[in-house]
Design goal:
This protein has 24 helices and no strands. The chain has about 350 residues and is mainly α.
């Protein structure tokens, strides 16, 4: 069998998102018979085709074969797929994987189908040889797979069952596209799962570093902010400290935002980052702090800042600093939105 693993880690590492992925079909393994005859074959046709027989197939027959495989993989009725797979031995599964992945466009169409995605996932991890075909196909059109609603689950499953070398190739591709994946509607969810399940400390930390280094732009992104939130919830102290360094001076602005305020609230849960946030709140000029306290999103940040500093008795200076800064505006905070903050202030008057 061709040695595809050798090329997995660094092949096309610098390809851009818009660059058209190659559609060169991986060669069929030597000595393996194809066990899936396409519809239209006569009873006299051989049930097992050698590689030389494959080369002799007409264009129409090849097209029919591809359509038949597509139908089996994507049909609502899973029975034909289950029956077929149950009868295939290791070598025949390898041939099936070759047929499924020989054309990138065809493979991507199946992976983007809800049923197709599930059935590809069931074929992953069957054997290293089978996984080699799928790894090559996934890497050829990686960005299109990782950012698709259903195809992304193929990549997630691959990251749990592939061997170390194939996983490393996947990690390299993820790092290459990390920011673009994080800013994608479906990609951000896939990236969060991959970070959570990462079993390689080196690549886990590399992903943390990418998120932390780009924390400000991701925090202001409609989907990237979910990745920042997720990483903060994993409570990696080094990563959290790196994130707060990047967000220093921007916490108030983020607190006014629908999603950004969640990130600031998460920063308030760790002592080191809490100090950074509260000190920034206290530096607000004029009545900006009271505007934040009355804001539909910002009020949650101010309320949490008061509660965590009140609880941490060794930093009472931060708590009383906020109280004294807010007290002159108590009458304005009694309105809806700031009522919880007003209650805290009343309790310490």
């Amino acid at each position: 069998m061709f040695n595809a693993v050798h090329h997995l880690r660094f092949a096309d590492a610098r390809e851009s998102i818009t660059k058209e992925y190659p559609t060169v079909a991986p060669p069929y393994p030597r000595g393996i018979s194809v066990v899936i005859p396409p519809p239209g074959f006569t009873s006299s046709s051989p049930s097992h085709l050698t590689n030389s027989s494959l080369a002799a197939l007409t264009h129409q027959e090849s097209k029919m074969r591809s359509q038949w495989i597509f139908d089996v993989m994507t049909n609502q009725d899973a029975a034909p797929f289950k029956e077929m797979v149950s009868k295939l031995d290791k070598r025949e599964l390898q041939t099936m994987a070759s047929l499924l992945t020989s054309d990138s466009d065809h493979f991507l169409m199946i992976a983007r189908n809800k049923n197709g995605s599930r059935r590809i996932q069931k074929l992953l991890g069957k054997s290293d040889d089978v996984d080699t075909f799928f790894a090559d196909a996934i890497l050829r059109c990686f960005f299109h797979i990782i950012t698709d609603r259903y195809a992304s689950y193929v990549a997630r499953r691959a990251m749990t069952v592939f061997d170390k070398e194939k996983k490393e190739a996947m990690y390299e591709r993820i790092l290459h596209y990390a920011l673009h994946i994080a800013r994608d509607r479906h990609g951000c969810l896939a990236l969060n799962d991959i970070i959570t399940d990462a079993d390689d400390l080196y690549y886990r930390n590399k992903l943390f570093d990418v998120v932390a280094h780009n924390a400000l732009s991701l925090s202001n992104d409609a989907y990237g902010n979910y990745v920042v939130q997720h990483v903060l919830k994993l409570n990696d102290l080094r990563c959290k400290n790196n994130i707060v360094v990047k967000l220093r001076g921007h916490c108030v602005d983020l607190s006014f935002q629908r999603r950004g305020n969640y990130i600031v609230q998460l920063l308030l849960e760790t002592e080191e980052s809490m100090v950074v946030v509260v000190e920034e709140l206290m530096k607000c000029k004029g009545d900006r702090l009271v505007k934040l306290a009355g804001n539909e999103f910002g009020n949650f940040v101010v309320e949490k800042a008061l509660r965590v500093t009140q609880k941490e008795m060794f930093r009472t200076d931060l708590f009383w600093g906020l109280v004294h800064k807010l007290m002159p505006f108590l009458h304005r905070l009694r309105r809806p939105g700031g009522s919880n903050i007003a209650s805290i202030l009343d309790s310490v008057c």
